[in-house]
Amino acid sequence: MHRRKCKMASVFRSEEMCLSQLFLQVESAYCCVAELGELGLVQFRDLNANVNSFQRKFVNEVRRCESLERILCFLESEMGNCVPLLKSDKYPETPLPREMIDLEVVLEKLEGELNEANQNLQALRQNFLELTELKHLLKKTQDFFETETNLPDDFFNEDTSGLLELRSTPAAVAAKLGFIAGVIKRERLVPFERLLWRACRGNIYLRFSEMDTPLEDPVTKEEMKKNVFIIFYQGEQLRQKIKKICDGFRATVYPCPESAGERREMAAGVNTRIEDLNTVITQTESHVQRLLKEASVMVWSWGIKVKKMKAIYHILNSCNIDVTQQCMIAEIWFPVADTGRIKRALNQGMERSGSTINPILTAIQTKMSPPTFNRTNKFTAGFQSIVDAYGVGNYREINPAPYTIITFPFLFAVMFGDWGHGTVMLAFALWMVINEKSLLAQKSDNEIWNTFFSGRYLILLMGIFSIYTGFIYNDCFSKSINIFGSSWHVRPMFIKGNWTEQILHSAEALQLDAALPGVYSGNPYPFGLDPIWNIAKNKLTFLNSYKMKMSVIVGITHMVFGVILSLFNHIYFKRTVSIVLQFLPEMIFILCLFGYLVFMIIFKWCQYGAHDAQYAPSILIHFINMFLFSYGDESNLPLYEHQQEVQSFLVIFALIAIPWMLLIKPFILRANHLKAQHMLKSPGMSESPTGDIEVEIIKDSKIASQEDHSGGGGHGGHDDHEEEFNFGDICVHQAIHTIEYCLGCISNTASYLRLWALSLAHAQLSDVLWTMVMRYGLANSTWSGLIIAFVLFAVFAVLTIAILLIMEGLSAFLHALRLHWVEFQNKFYAGSGYAFTPFSFKTIIEGSDD
User: Fold this and answer.
1) Termini Cα distance of the chain
2) Angle formed by the axes of helices 643-662 and 619-628, to 10°?
3) Domains of the chain (ranges plus CATH)?
4) What's the Cα-to-Cα distance from 318 to each of 39, 62, 330, 771, 846, rounded to whole Å?
5) How many other CB atoms sit within 10 Å of the CB of residue 478?
6) Are 103 and 306 in contact (CB under 8 A)?
7) What is the pLDDT of residues 331-390, one digit of tens each?
């Protein structure tokens, strides 16, 4: 019964947390931490925060895990997209410490085999590249000597006319021409040729030819385009210069025989070696693929195991070991409601390790602020993330998320009210909800899609509320639906009196006067706005007044609800001073001024109908005169009898609430503090009651220091030390809070007028889109008009989704977000706590995958 009560209470405020010391036998510590990681409900405190990471006990185990991670990353990079990883729906069990040795042996052996195979494969590919280049070089060189039959007469020497004659004479032997043949990258050829010409002063003859097929770099596997070159020279000096320039440009020089027969013989040998190399390369690649396929079955499972082991050793490094080296001590935060589950997990870890000593869990008293943990499910997670984006709540303060489930989609729908657009949004959300299992399994990397999908239930409610407000506004794609029949009509007897048939059919605009008999039936439209307003000339004027007053009512109601929630914070934390000196004046101030404004709006709606609306007084003028105490304006009649007395009383009472809120609380806290100090100095007093009083005083001073931006809270922060009581700081914080609250009531009420502005903007934009697109398609009743309407409807649908649903929807979403963060939550929500971050294998693994 107690556990059920805790879970019910945790919906409206954060879970009750407990700080405990956990005593574990060294032999069973690993398995116990592993079971807690599977459970994911325990947050470990680092008890070795002042110890260097390299000086902790299990640093070697962490390094071994990191070495295994490096090998696994190497295997995954080798697999790439060629060999898919085989994944399972269920994570493997956490391995025992002794399994790390077996895993190291397997992975190191696999890494060694792959490295050896890759080195052999790289050497074979390098050899294949060189043989391929030599093959092309021999072919291009042979083509050159066969086609180059007419060299210049003075190319060799002044006495010879051909290459064969030069080589056959003794004089030619002394001045024999030599040549160097090689291969160079195509982009380096131009500077290579320029440098050769300058360095050799033009005493060379260079010919080059492009290789037809691109080659593959054996290391980077990138495509390379190369050229074959042949350089003729004379003399040893030129040969040395050419050789150095080739080395500088990383050109590969190959030996090339002078005779055609030797070149053909060498080419045949090269082709044979290339064929043999192709066979060996294919076999080596098959061996590598076989190794990777065998590893692909286990790589994912190995990766999960290594991540779990590494996480466990990180946690063990944050624990202390007693002097006997037999017991490990940890400090953990966990929800009180899950104490039984945590104890069962510890017992399972003890049994798995084979230990016979039960883990000991003892609660400890602390002045530290506990972490904030709000339990969520797939429905509430989206709303909780909206609240946490503003700030994580203080421990055990009111959680706005349950109320946000209703108020957020409602305020969004007030701005987005169109049941046509709401239906489209609802259909999209329903599709995501119905297919959520298959969509979750796909695990898309698209951030925009993931954002939409994580908020699918929020979009679902926004669509439902938009349909509701769309029926209230009687707005469907900018058009009204006449469901119940309009309450405005013209009866025949009235037509005979003033309007003729000719006037009815020829006039562009007719004014329906509700004060005249027969025009208005006196019964309002059953639900929402009368459809006749959609064609009325004064539609915008009427909707302006209606939606503006509606926004004021909704906004003030929302703010008053936030102030009421602050009362529950004060009651829970037993802050009687804050109830009397903060909550009461806040409620008096906002109700006497802005609550009275809501009363006047509703009273005017009830008091004046369609027949006497022209005689209704102005609420705005009454509200201004209320602050000025000006009641001599006879043109603006009072709403009710004794209005002057009531309004004067409310203004005076609201003004009294300001010093009530500003001055009394700091002096009360100061008096309590002095009283506590006096009791501490008095002889014969026990320490316990005075200590409790002093803690309450300091707690109240903390509250006052936080209320410069919020009306609640009191346990935010990590500090484990008490703050000094400072009367000056408390006065300043209380003054800031009072000024901010009083001015905020005015500015926040004005801020809610965005409900009116965005609602009108959405309706007008929808009307403009219909008028500019669909009206032309529906104006023509011929067959061509049908085709035009079909095309224009597609354009209308695309623009509706892109502009009205996505852009306008995002705008309304952001404005609703601001109304909750600033106007609503600042009345009771501090948001200065820190989140509960339990040790969870699921979070670690999914986080690393992301």
Assistant:
1) 40
2) 60
3) 1-47+318-373 (3.30.70.260), 52-130+280-315 (no CATH), 148-256 (3.30.70.2750), 381-486+760-827 (no CATH), 488-521 (no CATH), 542-664+706-717+725-750 (no CATH)
4) 19, 13, 8, 67, 23
5) 21
6) yes
7) 999 999 999 999 999 999 999 988 888 899 999 998 899 999 999 999 999 999 999 999
